[in-house]
UniProtKB/TrEMBL annotation:
Any one GO molecular function term: pyridoxal phosphate binding
Source species of the chain: Altericroceibacterium spongiae
Pfam family, one: Aminotran_3
Statement: the UniProt record of this protein carries the keyword Transferase: yes
Family matches, as CDD domains: OAT_like (cd00610)
Record lineage: Bacteria, Pseudomonadati, Pseudomonadota, Alphaproteobacteria, Sphingomonadales
The UniProt record lists the keyword Transferase: yes
Name of the protein described by the UniProt record: Aminotransferase class III-fold pyridoxal phosphate-dependent enzyme
Keywords associated with the record: Aminotransferase, Pyridoxal phosphate, Transferase
Amino acid sequence: MRSAPSYDNADLRRLDVAHHLPPQQDWALQKNSGGSRIIVKGEDSTIWDAEGNAILDAMAGLWCVQVGYGRREMAEAAFAQMSELPFYNSFFRTAAPPTIALASRIAGLLGGSLQHVFFNNSGSEAVDTLVRTARYYWQARGEPQRSVIIGRKNGYHGSTIGGVSMGGMVSMHNQGGPWVPDHEHVMQPYSFEEQRPDEDEDMFAERAARAIEDKLLEVGPERVAMIFGEPVQGAGGVIIPPRGYWSRVEEIARKYGVLLGCDEVICGYGRLGEWFGFQHFGVKPDLVSMAKGLSSGYLPISATAMADHVVETIREANAPFVHGYTYSGHPTSAAVALANIDIIEREGLVDRTKNDTGPYLAKALQSLADHPLVGEVRSLGLLGAIEIVSEKGTSSRFGNKPGLAGAMIRDACIERGLMLRAVKDTLVMSPPLVITHDEIDRIAMIVRESLDACEPALREAGVTSL
Ligand SMILES: *Cc1c(COP(=O)(O)O)cnc(C)c1O
């Protein structure tokens, strides 16, 4: 393994505290811990920090580096496009070749009537575009009162004002509101915490879907624009819905004639073993947001895909859609996304996730299910989760505040060379689609070692005092 180039780590960490404000973080903790861990290099599924530690990146950056790190082909695509035409806008009836080529390529992967693609720069922006489109669509159809969007509690749809409004994260709603009106959130299909002892999987799926229908009836079906959700909730804790849930949700959307939207920012680009999560669950959304795996994170780019009937309706309105970003369809980002899709296709990474590494990860996680701290393991494709509990056979957590045990075990994993995330007391992972069997074995081994190492301290601190 190559070692990292040398940086002055102490100096960088000092400057980090002095000047760099990290996103989604406790800035006091950043300061008190002496600054961020400096990551300097990546290759395949491994990253290196400035102290030369190799860390297996079971988070694929942030759910996004599908093709792994260090792909020259991606750098070369960026170099070639930047040399030819780094940027040009798409506002004034102009467009660059890679922008159009990428739109067409994405349409091919989506299939069906999802044949139209609008570009943005981030997942949050893709979601903002999707909301504006849904509401504008109903305005164009002469039903402007249809502005309500029904999502799920604990859903994650980004960090812009629009994304937070659309999402169902209470911790985010508690800071910086008020939020955009007409966003409703109903129970999440989170069986580990929400399924009742007297319910089987089908009954739970029915109740969770029914929550959407109940909300729709409560608001008034004539006021609802869209039902929207992540096929599998990622940031909320890799919440894999019960069998039949998405079909029921689609049925409800069709029954009341409202739009169905899927946030594919994590599930898209092979993560669940299909190009998109909705394909795995066998539903047909009208609107789809995507980002992350679209470029494997090599450059920022996102997209909002729209069904034929949505675009036809908006075209019939015969007025410009006054929405878009300077960098919508950025030619260099588009060229890199095309190279990324080339790699995913050429290396068969979607099939490999479905038929090889996905099932292999499921087995590896299953090998941890007997651990006294593990309440449940679950996975779909290359998204996985481990629930940490204080009492086997229950969903009771350690401590008087959720998340302490999760953070402790996550840190123990990182110390042992494995990067994963803790969503409160759920350890989550989303490794690059190029991950190998050996690396998956290593994930399971390091998680077990970390569980073992943390258990005495967790038991000693007890349920109430931690
Ligand atoms: C990450 C994420 C977003 C936001 O994407 P950004 O690029 O961070 O703006 C939106 N939706 C889902 C499902 C995500 O996972």
